[in-house]
Amino acid sequence: MLKNISKMEVKVGEKIYQFLCEMDSSLTDVKEALSQFHVHICYVEESIKKQLQEARERESSEELQEAKAE
Questions:
Q1: How far apart are CA 36 and CA 40, in angstroms?
Q2: What span, in angstroms and rounded, lies between the C-alpha atoms of 32 and 13?
Q3: pLDDT by 10s per residue, the chain, length 70
Q4: Where are the domains of the chain?
Q5: Model pTM?
Q6: In sequence order, which residues have a C-beta less than 8 Å from that of residue 31 and are 6 or more positions away?
């Protein structure tokens, strides 16, 4: 099955980003899709921050235990 699509393309720095959707998509649905992408990206960012913080805390704890052992 063939479908016509609309494509939005933006260049940020040296990279090109694209958003594809069916041509007859309502603007309300497009906004909702973009909002869901945004929420997902924020979730990924928060997960990365949490992992980095936990790694820092583990390193600090290990350094503290090594200092006590000496």
A1: 6
A2: 26
A3: 899 999 999 999 999 999 999 999 999 999 999 999 999 999 999 999 999 999 998 888 877 777 777 6
A4: 5-69
A5: 0.72
A6: none
